[in-house]
Amino acid sequence: MISQPTFLCVASPENQFHRRLPMKRLTIMVPVYNEQDVIPLFYSRIRRVIETLSHHYHVDLLFLNNASTDGTLDKIASVREDFANTYVISLSRNVGYQRSLECGLRNAKGDLFVFIDVDCEDPPEMILQFIEKHEQGYDIVFGERVDREEPETIKAARKAFYRILQKVADEDIILDMAEFSLFTAEVRDALVQENTSFPFVRSSISRVGFRRTAIPFKRDKRIAGETHYNLLGMTVFAVAGILSASTLPLRLPLYTLPFMLVGLVVFGALYVVTASPWFALAAAVLAIGHMATSVAFIALYVGRTYKNGLMRPNAFIDRRSSMLQPDPVPQDKTPTPPLIAPALP
Bias category Pro residues: which stretches (predicted)? Predict the structure, then answer.
């Protein structure tokens, strides 16, 4: 459902008449999982951003709690005591980072939305730059990660992955883009039209189009706590990204078929000339390997298609531990008096 803008009564300095002007509702969505040590430090920084924006925007802080098992909810409650526009969507189980973002998209209310990680690797202060770009007319403003504090090998692997993904993707993929972004309600409504069991939000944001711009930045170190991503998690994430954005693995066996046939001919000729059983075995291994790889790729996509066909929800909200945003105040339908009083006869 498209959220309606909240409205603020603004006095005109020229006369006693008033008009109702829309005050846009900005919802900052923050996914969290076992981040009790990080939330107070994050809030100390995001609070200054909220205070700066509060004169022109109605700001909500919405935590997406991915079934945390530590004191994360208690820390969120402490934040709410200081900032009343703090809300939380708690999921009934840990569904992963991407699915929690999708749940936030489907349930958040507002005119503008921001995704930001709680660990402050994406600096909260950049939201002010996002707003500035939005006010210039952009529908999507995102952070472009030009550098980050991590080992050079992992940094090189990340760059290679995104460049490979851009080459093999069926549609446009923005390099070095992540979920750290600001987008309008129109963009959000386009994003939630996708029904997939395997959401990949950064790819979806690239795919929907609209007017967009990037702000380059260097990603900071995690402010506290330990990361939930390891090498295995990064690998799974990379595979999921390729499967979500590209059908090349399905076509790859066809592209490699000529090379496989040439190999069979060569091994067959060598077997005839030398009568060595090793060449026959090599030919059999090549043919079976090509066939097995083809079936494996097909199975991956068929499995994903089957899951999508079930149309199961990706997440369920635990309302006992959630505090959802209230509905927006509807626009007053009464006629708006003019700013300038009509001349009396």
Answer: 335-345
User: Distance (Å, rounded) from C-alpha 2 to C-alpha 140?
Assistant: 17
Of 5, 88, 3, the residue nearest 43 (C-alpha): 88
Q: 263 with 286: CB under 8 angstroms?
A: yes
Residue of 108, 50, 122, 61 whose CA lies nearest to 86: 61
Percent of the chain with pLDDT over 90: 32
- Locate 118 and state its tokens: 């709680």
Q: Which CATH number fits domain 22-246+314-321: 3.40.47.40, 3.10.310.40, 3.40.309.10, 3.90.550.10?
A: 3.90.550.10
Would you say 99 and 315 are in contact if contact means Cβ atoms under 8 Å apart?
Answer: yes
How many whole angstroms separate alpha carbon 193 and alpha carbon 283? 48
| DSSP character string of 86-137 | EEEEEBSS---HHHHHHHHHHH--SSEEEE--TTSSS-TTHHHHHHHHHTTT
Lowest mean pLDDT among 52-56, 268-272, 305-309: 268-272
- Alpha-carbon radius of gyration of the chain: 26
Q: What angle do CA 46, 50, 54 make, to 5 degrees?
A: 180
Pairing of strands 177-184, 112-115: antiparallel
The residues facing 86 across adjacent strands are 61
- Separation between Cα atoms, residue 213 and residue 203, nearest integer Å: 15
Supply the pTM of this predicted model: 0.76
Classified as helix, coil or strand, 260 is helix
